[in-house]
Protein: DUF4367 domain-containing protein
Organism: Micromonospora noduli
Amino acid sequence: MALVALLVAVLPPTRGAIADVVTGLLRFAGVSIATSPAPTPPGGTASPLPGQRAVALDEAQRSVRFPIRLPAMLGTPEQVLVADPDATGRYRVATLLYDGGALRVDAFDGHLDLAFHKEVTPPGANWVQVNGDFAVWVDGPHVLSYVDRAGGIRRETARLAGSTLIWQDNDVSYRLEGTLTKAEAIEIARSLG
């Protein structure tokens, strides 16, 4: 079966999600999703994202170009990571880690640039809603890789990710990943402060 690729990129909130039926292109929240009968699981240990480092929450907030908002249901994270600094030292991604890293929230600037690439098995991703807006739910394990600023998929960052909810709030895109049900993930996303 041929690989069916859905490229999903962030759209301004006023434009909403757009699907191009002719090309099969769907754009949403800075993530490309490729559906394949059997994605190849990554081997070895995934490399950290470019320039990744642990920082205090207040330092992370000063280091990114977007507000870092915490889900009220999760509270203060155990650890905060920032990654992929630009030439001015501003970071592209902030990661909030909970439950020893088993639960994570990635936040990234919601412009049209891709930030993550997922390889999922059918049925792949499903549309859901968070606070009346579209979101994407990826049920079960799937391969996740980072997409760098130049648009290249960084295969060395590939890892097996758990179930994930992807949504956008204003100009910030979010990935909530962990051993959660779809309903639990949506409730956590709704609690974003």
Observations:
- The chain has two helices and 15 strands.
- Confidence is low (pLDDT under 50) at residues 1-27.
